[in-house]
Automatic annotation (TrEMBL):
InterPro entries: 6-PGluconate_DH-like_C_sf, NAD(P)-bd_dom_sf, UDP-Glc/GDP-Man, UDP-Glc/GDP-Man_DH_C, UDP-Glc/GDP-Man_DH_C_sf, UDP-Glc/GDP-Man_DH_dimer, UDP-Glc/GDP-Man_DH_N, UDP_ManNAc/GlcNAc_DH
Keyword Oxidoreductase attached: yes
Organism, as annotated: Candidatus Staskawiczbacteria bacterium RIFCSPHIGHO2_01_FULL_39_25
Protein name (Swiss-Prot/TrEMBL): UDP-glucose/GDP-mannose dehydrogenase C-terminal domain-containing protein
Gene3D superfamilies membership: NAD(P)-binding Rossmann-like Domain
Length: 438
C-alpha cells in the first residue's frame, strides 16, 4: 500500500471527543487545525484552558497551542490540509429519542468548499448505521470526487480519554480500500492496534453494539436488584457471591446508568435496526426506571411528609465519579434533582469532588461539604462513585446525622460502614435497611 499523507489534520468540533483527539495528534507532531464554533469555548482554549475536566488536558493544550495545534472558529482557507475529522455532537431528541444528525450535516457542508481530491474525511461522531454513506457522502460528492471517506468511532471513557486514545484499538471502516488505508495510516500514528472492518457500516455499528451491551449488563444487574429487594435479600451480597471464583459470571453491580453516550447510543442502535429490538429496548427502560425507584424509596422513607419539608443532600453530580469528570450531561443526579423539584423539594444541599460550586449553584443547590450536608439532611443521596469517598469516615459522620434520617447509596460505596448501624436508615439499589422514620 502506498502511504497517504495525513499529517495536516483539521478537527471540527472541540468537545470531549474532538479536543482530546486534536491534542493527542498535535502532541505526536501532526499539524492540527482545531475548529470550534462556540466562541466562549474557543476563547478559553486559546488561553490554554479546556471547558471540561480531563486529566492532563490543559497541560497538553498549553504545550501544543500555537505550534502544532492551531485554533480557529472556521476552517482556514488555503492551508495544506489533507484530512478532516468531524467530531461534532449527535444528541437524541428528548421526546422522539431519534438521533439528530444536523450538526454532522452542517459540519460536512463546511468542509465542502475546502475539499480536494486525495483528502481524507473521517467521521468520528456516533451516528446511525448508514449515515456516513447516506448523509455525509452525498454532501461531499456534490462538489468533489477522488476524496477518501472513513468512519472511525470514538470509544474512550471520559476521564481517561488521553490515555485510552493511545491504548485502545481503533476501529476503522472505509468507503473503499483506499479510504480504509488512509484512515489506518492516520490512526496508526496514535494507536498500537487497528481493527480494519469490512465496511463503513461495520465500523458504525461496532460503537453502538459496544455501548448497548454495556447498558444491557447494567440493566440485568438492576433487574436482579429489584428481585432481591422484593425477596428481602441484599443484591450486592447475592451478586458478589455469584461472581466469586466462578469463571462463567461477571455480573455487574446494580447502579445508575447515565452519561451522554450510554443514554443515547442504544436508541441510535434501535433507530438503525430493521429487526427485533425488544431486548435493547427493555434494558434501556429498566435503567431509565432506576431513578424512579430511588424517588420511591425516598418517599416511602419520609412517609407522608411533603418533600418541600424535607432537607436533602445530594453528593456526586457528575454522571460518574471514576474515572472522574465534571460532565453533567445525562447525569442521574440531575434527573433526581429535577424529580425532587417537581415534587416541590426546595431545600437541597449539594457536593461534588469535581463539579465546581458555581455549576452547582446554577443547578439551584447550595454547595456544602459532605460533613455539613450529612449533618443537616433528612435524606442524603450518593449519586456517583468518586474514589475520594473511600477517604470518608462514613461510620462516624452517619452518627452525627439526625436519628432516623436516610442515606441512599446509589453506588454501594458504604455498605460495610452503614449496613449494621441502628442510627439511620440505609438503602442502595437492591438493599434496604430501615430504622424508625423521621
Ligand atoms: N463524550 C464522549 O466521551 C464520547 C465518547 C465516544 C463518542 N462520542 C460521540 O462523539 C460525538 C461528539 O461528542 P462530544 O461529547 O465531544 O460532544 P460535545 O458537544 O462535547 O462537542 C461537540 C463540539 O462541537 C462544536 N461544534 C458543533 N458544530 C460545529 C461546527 N460546525 N464547527 C465547529 N464546531 C462545531 C460544539 O460547539 C461542541 O463544542 C458525539 O457523536 C458523541 O456521541 C462521545
Amino acid at each position: 500500500m502506498e502511504s497517504k499523507k495525513v499529517d495536516n489534520v483539521c478537527v471540527i468540533g472541540l468537545g470531549y471527543v474532538g479536543l482530546t483527539l486534536a491534542v493527542t495528534l498535535a502532541e505526536k507532531g501532526l499539524t492540527v487545525f482545531g475548529i470550534e464554533k462556540n466562541e466562549k469555548i474557543l476563547g478559553d482554549l486559546k488561553k490554554g484552558k479546556s471547558h471540561f475536566h480531563e486529566k492532563g488536558l490543559n497541560e497538553l493544550i498549553q504545550k501544543t497551542k500555537g505550534t502544532t495545534l492551531l485554533l480557529s472558529k472556521e476552517i482556514p482557507a488555503g492551508k495544506a490540509i489533507n484530512c478532516f475529522i468531524i467530531a461534532v455532537s449527535t444528541p437524541i431528541d428528548a421526546i422522539t429519542k431519534l438521533p439528530r444528525i444536523d450538526y454532522i450535516e452542517k459540519a460536512t457542508q463546511e468542509i465542502v468548499p475546502h475539499l480536494q481530491p486525495g483528502q481524507l474525511v473521517v467521521l468520528r461522531s456516533t451516528i446511525p448505521v448508514g449515515a456516513t454513506r447516506n448523509v455525509v457522502l452525498p454532501i461531499l460528492q456534490k462538489k468533489c470526487s477522488g476524496f477518501y471517506l472513513s468512519f472511525c468511532p470514538e470509544r474512550t471513557a471520559e476521564g481517561k480519554a488521553l490515555e485510552e486514545l493511545k491504548t485502545l484499538p481503533q476501529v476503522v471502516g472505509g468507503l473503499d480500500e483506499a479510504s480504509t488505508d488512509a484512515a489506518v495510516e492516520l490512526f496508526s500514528k496514535i494507536s498500537p492496534l487497528i481493527v480494519r472492518t469490512e465496511s463503513l457500516e461495520v465500523a458504525e455499528i461496532v460503537k453502538l453494539v459496544n455501548n448497548s451491551y454495556r447498558d444491557m449488563m447494567f440493566a440485568y444487574a438492576n433487574q436482579i436488584a429489584l428481585i432481591c429487594k422484593s425477596l428481602h435479600l441484599d443484591a450486592k451480597d447475592v451478586i458478589d457471591a455469584a461472581n466469586l471464583g466462578y469463571p462463567r459470571a461477571d455480573i455487574k453491580l446494580p447502579g445508575l446508568v447515565g452519561g451522554f453516550c450510554l443514554e443515547k447510543d442504544p436508541y441510535i442502535l434501535m433507530t438503525s435496526a430493521k429487526s427485533d429490538i425488544s431486548l435493547i429496548k427493555a434494558a434501556k427502560q429498566i435503567n431509565e426506571n432506576t431513578i424512579y425507584h430511588i424517588l420511591d424509596s425516598i418517599k416511602s422513607h419520609v412517609k407522608r411528609k411533603p418533600l418541600k419539608d424535607v432537607k436533602f443532600f445530594i453528593s456526586g453530580f457528575a454522571f460518574k465519579g471514576d474515572p472522574e469528570t465534571d460532565d453533567l450531561r445525562s447525569s442521574q443526579a440531575i434527573k433526581l434533582l429535577e424529580l425532587l423539584k417537581k415534587n416541590k423539594a426546595n431545600n437541597i444541599l449539594g457536593h461534588d469532588f469535581i463539579v465546581s460550586q458555581k455549576q452547582m449553584k446554577n443547578l439551584g443547590v447550595v454547595p456544602v461539604s459532605i460533613e455539613k450536608g450529612l449533618k443537616e439532611a433528612d435524606v442524603a443521596v450518593f449519586m456517583n462513585n468518586h474514589r475520594s469517598y473511600a477517604n470518608v469516615n462514613m461510620e462516624l459522620l452517619a452518627k452525627k446525622m439526625k436519628k432516623g434520617s436516610l442515606i441512599f447509596d446509589g453506588w454501594h460505596i458504604f455498605p460495610e460502614q452503614l449496613k449494621h448501624n441502628d442510627h439511620i436508615a440505609y438503602e442502595s439499589i437492591g438493599f434496604s435497611k430501615r430504622v424508625e422514620k423521621i
